[in-house]
Write a structure and sequence with these properties.
homotetramer; mainly alpha; Arc Repressor Mutant, subunit A; 10 helices; DNA-binding
DNA sequence: AATGAATGAGCATTCATTCAT
DNA sequence: GATGAATGAATGCTCATTCAT
């Protein structure tokens, strides 16, 4: 007996996310959210401590959604490191491209607005990055030193992040096939996990 | 030999850029710019049509600055394609990291603020990207089909853009040496220009 | 033997009084009272008609408390008029200084908040003042005319009230010993009850 | 060529003072002041930094006005200490009764609102009180110890303050002649300057 | 006896912009 | 070329109160 989607809290989050994406943090105003939801601005304060609290709730949503996807791949045991890496890269890219609103909130928004977001949440994200590093190490098979692994993982991330942000911001030439670009971005990132000796 | 911005218009742009970087588009307010410059808010309207006009002037500044750097490398004739590519990649990265305020304005800020920015300016940017593509083609030496070249150039760009944006937003683990990461990002992008099958 | 305010009504009055003293009438808000008490704002309306009603209840408390003290002295029969006067003056001063929250509510708060407070309550207060007048008359022993007695009683009151209010508002030079000042204030008021011409 | 009374700044102060007296600090809102003045709330910010600044301007006005009166008496040289004291007491009482709005702002308002008022202004007030003390010492003629003088001056002040505040708050029985009470209050305060030996 | 959800009015403040000078 | 005065709209937020449960 699932409650009807009239649940106010969720409506608020919905409209807030849309406004945030479409118009930015500042113009995502309590009043405008309320007016789209169809309630009073005051009511928002029944569900969120304040604007910042609402924003953090938005972040949480995104984080959770991303982690579920990533962990599903990272924790699979019947796979090779390469398979996991390719899976993780693609999952990350897909998450960003299919949920641009979430991705923007989490990784594109100026850190100014994100500064008070509990750091342990971002630490949880970094944690996944470390697991990616571990798989890169495994894939390369040469037991590389930890600093090198860290660099490789960061490079993979920046590469994927750049792809998502330019695509989401529609800065990439429209004549370019997005799917191709994404496939190639995965492969480009995978190159980081090739055994050395090239 | 930066002349002391006796010129009011330049002072305005100066302070506007600082405010924009430090506090974001919304809090870069006409009044606050004016107060830092030491004139009236009204005066800003003598030099710029309105806030949006001022913002576009800021964009122009950044574009010019970047193009000067890129063209210097791209137009050098006594160099190999590889040298030019490496130079362009590094120039782009350095520009972003040394002028985060410009880079943010041009490529990190949400396109909503940029929407009314004259498209020919962005076309000029895309133009440089095509020249990068040309050098990639030269470097690979196999006369690849144009679509492939476009993809490769885009991949290079996303990779560099990701590096800059995550570094500028300080999302990369602080323990990671920035210079190393930048060097490796250049090499990672250079890999795109390797002759195939090697 | 103050019973632990198990009673919700008493808890509300308690917290309301504290808030009133600490932050003033305006910031003594129903929500904040409720949150300190640990119940809903709505619940306050079960015990008080509205904020004004709650405030009047606070007044009543204070009035009762003061009257008990004053009457104890005024109604003692085995005492001289001088003793009673000195006792009343001191009781009044002590009440104000020991219960600044009550005193503020009753006599320092702007009458605007008090305007709708039932006048018979203030009449009860005036009643005590008349009894003070009677004792002054007795002490002076010259059967003075009633108007003069009224003036003397008023003077005593203003004198004590001034002492309390400046002390409570902490406007008196901190280097001045409060106890000394209070003692002297009593004596200064007692001077009004000296037989004339002496 | 005195400017017409349309001077906005003064109108604002006027209406603010009225509202403050009639309805208290909180309900003296920027919007309500503006609406009474006949301008926008925004305009108030052209003349005062913020609400607190406006309030301080109100305080300053009152302080200045009071000091002019007091100093005129205190600095007169062809007078006896007794004459000066009587004059000062009466000036203070008259100021309070004729400018209840100023007096309330300065001495009756809860210190909460006054807390950020520059302390040197209050120090200037205390300074006058010390001069009163000096005259009390002179009048008593027995070269009393400084602490005693301080107490006497404080007693005089509390006495006058009490008179003003109860009269202003209309708590004194209406049947009592105000002028008589004021005269007697002066005399009651003067008693503090009587040579000892009683 | 108590709550949860909701509201409408109000608050101080900041903003981009205009206009007469 | 620059200003001072002014505005209307918007912002985040808090308030007392009501009502159905």
């Amino acid at each position: 007996m699932p409650r009807p989607a009239t649940n106010l809290r969720e409506s608020i989050l919905d409209q807030a996310r849309r406004l945030l994406l479409a118009e930015g943090y500042t113009r995502m105003s309590m009043r405008r959210i309320a007016s789209r939801v169809g309630c009073t601005a005051t009511s928002l304060y029944l569900y969120f401590k304040n604007k910042n609290g609402l924003f953090h709730a938005l972040m949480d949503e995104g984080m959770d959604k991303l982690f579920v996807g990533l962990d599903h791949v990272l924790e699979s045991t019947d796979t090779t490191p390469q398979e996991r890496l390719r899976g993780v890269f693609r999952t990350y890219l897909d998450f960003g491209l299919e949920n641009p609103e979430f991705y923007e909130v989490m990784f594109l928004l100026h850190p100014r607005h994100t500064r008070r977001y509990p750091p342990e949440k971002y630490r949880a994200a970094r944690n996944r990055l470390e697991r990616v590093g571990a798989d890169i190490a495994l894939a390369r098979g040469d037991d590389p030193d930890p600093a090198e692994v860290q660099v490789l993982a960061a490079l993979a991330w920046t590469s994927l992040h750049g792809t998502i942000s330019l695509l989401v911001a529609q800065r990439v030439d429209a004549r370019l096939d997005q799917e191709t670009l994404v496939d190639r971005a995965v492969e480009h990132a995978m190159a980081l996990a090739l055994p050395p000796q090239s």
